[in-house]
Amino acid sequence: MKKILLRKISWAEERIRTKSADKDDSDDLKRWIEFFRHERLIHLIVTVFVGLCDMISIVIIVLGANYSSFILTALLTLLFILYILHYYALENGTQKLYLLFDEMSKTIRAKTPK
After folding, report:
1. What is the per-residue DSSP string for 73-108?
2. Fewer CB atoms inside 10 Å of the end CB: C or N, the chain?
3. Cβ atoms of residues 2 and 93 within 8 Å
4. What residues have CB less than 8 Å from 28, skipping those under 6 apart?
5. Closest Cα to residue 100, out of 41, 5, 18, 29?
6. What distance lies between CA 83 and its chain's CA centroid?
7. Alpha helices, DSSP H only, in 1-66?
8. Cα distance between residue 86 and residue 111, in whole Å
9. Cβ(45)–Cβ(8) below 8 Å
10. Are 57 and 87 in contact (CB under 8 A)?
11. Residue 114: predicted pLDDT
12. Is 22 helix (H, G, I), strand (E, B) or coil?
C-alpha cells in the first residue's frame, strides 16, 4: 500500500509541476484519496485492536507471569509498533494527497478560461 501511495504522490506532484493536470486527473486523485481514507480507517481499527490485545497481555504478565505470556507480549508489542509505523506513513501520505489535491485544483482553475 505504501508503494501505491508514494506512486500517487509523485504522479500528482508531476502533474502539478508540469501544469498538465486536468479535471480527469483531479477526479482520479479524489478517487484515490477516498481509497486511502478507507484503508486508513481499517488500519486504525486494527491498530487499536492490536494495542488493546498488547495491553491485556501486559496485564496478564503483571498478574501471573509465565514464559508463554512473555513471548505473546513481545510478539504483540512488535506487531503494534509495526502497525503504528505503517499507520503513520499512511496518515501522512493521505494528508499529503489532500494538499496536492488542493494545489491541483488551483492549477486547473488557473488555466481554465473565464
Report:
1. HHHHHHHHHHHHHHHHHHHHHHHHHHHHHHHHHHHH
2. C
3. yes
4. none
5. 29
6. 11
7. 2-17, 23-64
8. 37
9. no
10. no
11. 65
12. coil
Instruction: Specify the residue for cell string 488542493.
Output: 102
pLDDT tens for the chain, 114 residues long, are 789 999 999 999 999 999 888 889 999 999 999 999 999 999 999 999 999 999 999 998 888 878 888 998 999 999 999 999 999 999 999 999 999 999 999 988 887 776
Nine cell digits for residue 108: 486547473
At 21, is the secondary structure helix, strand, or coil?
A: coil
Residue 112 and residue 98: Cα distance in Å, rounded?
21
| Cell numbers placing 32 | 484515490
Residues 26, 8 contacting (CB under 8 angstroms): no
